[in-house]
Amino acid sequence: MADRYLAIFFVSLSCLYRSFDASAGDVDPLYRACISQCEKTGCVGETCFTHCEYSVDGSSSDNQKEPLYRQLTQRDCPNDCKYHCMLQREKERAALGFGPVKYHGKWPFKRVFGLQEPVSVAFSALNLAMHIQGWLSFFKLRSKTTNKRISYDYAGLWNIYALLSVNSWFWSVVSHSRDVELTEKLDYSSAVALLGFSLIISILRCFSIKDEATRVLMSAPLLAFTTTHILYLNNYQMDYGIIDAHSLWHATTVPLAYIWWSFIQDDAKYQTINPRMIREQFGAKRERFEAKTNKIGKGSSWAPQAVPGATCDAENSRLKNWGAMEGAWRRAGHR
């Protein structure tokens, strides 16, 4: 009895897997018949493919070999047959009042200038441009810092974030231009890597974690989870269903990228210009200096005072710079 139940379970599981593995358009008999006919003749209706050569009896030419670029992009005869048969079946379904269905896990988009999903390509390219612009602005801001001795504790992490962002949106453009197995996996893997690192750096910044050992301990489990998920995606047949809402999601992230990089630049300015943050970085050194010079009394303000002596010229210059920055900060309305 137990063996019978076990057999029923595995049969049901295999049927369930097949139902998940196939899309409604794939199992359409007319769609399959169209592909079979196209593979024999090289034509779908009145549309024939010049890069497909067939003999009079319908058999493929022995000398026919797909160019390398068509093999890499999978724009060969079999795939062109699938694409045009899909378009033909959707026209027939629309004439009968039926809505679109998925084919091989994807919605039936029509190519524009050779691009498989032109709207998603456009918005992905805009996201890529926004991240490049934000990264360059951040780099210019850091290069113009008045006092090079004042460090921004998250500069290196934001540069890594920028690299992952540019990489992720680049592969998003490529994948939506031509969605094959390789570009799809690169798109997914890059997106997951960006999301995982975004979570890590958000936690580090929100809780102001600056100690390297603490950063490693916090990041290690998240990095392990992200890596495991990327490996899972690359060993699983994905079916995420590219719909119009997907391209609209790409559209919403364009202004968010601008806002996010604006925050990063403001955070860097606050950390490197605000006198309060400067005092945190150099407070201990200043206290030792003041104790030696005995120039600032117990109840005096933080305003810098000049220190006599040629040996203190460098320190006097730095204190004047601090005073100038604090004055500009206060005139701007900050406390």
From TrEMBL:
Q: Any transmembrane segments, and where? A: 119-139, 151-171, 191-208
Q: GO CC annotations?
A: endoplasmic reticulum membrane; Golgi membrane
The annotated topology with respect to the bilayer is: Multi-pass membrane protein
Residues making up the signal peptide according to the UniProt record? 1-24
- Predominant location: Golgi
Q: Which InterPro entries match?
A: Per1-like
What job does this protein perform? Involved in the lipid remodeling steps of GPI-anchor maturation.
What family classification does the UniProt entry report for this protein?
Belongs to the PGAP3 family.
**Gene Ontology terms, MF aspect:** hydrolase activity, acting on ester bonds
Give the location in the cell: Golgi apparatus membrane
Q: Recite the UniProt keywords alphabetically.
A: Golgi apparatus, GPI-anchor biosynthesis, Membrane, Signal, Transmembrane, Transmembrane helix
Entry protein name = Post-GPI attachment to proteins factor 3
**Single GO biological process annotation from the record:** GPI anchor biosynthetic process
> From which domain of life does this come?
Eukaryota
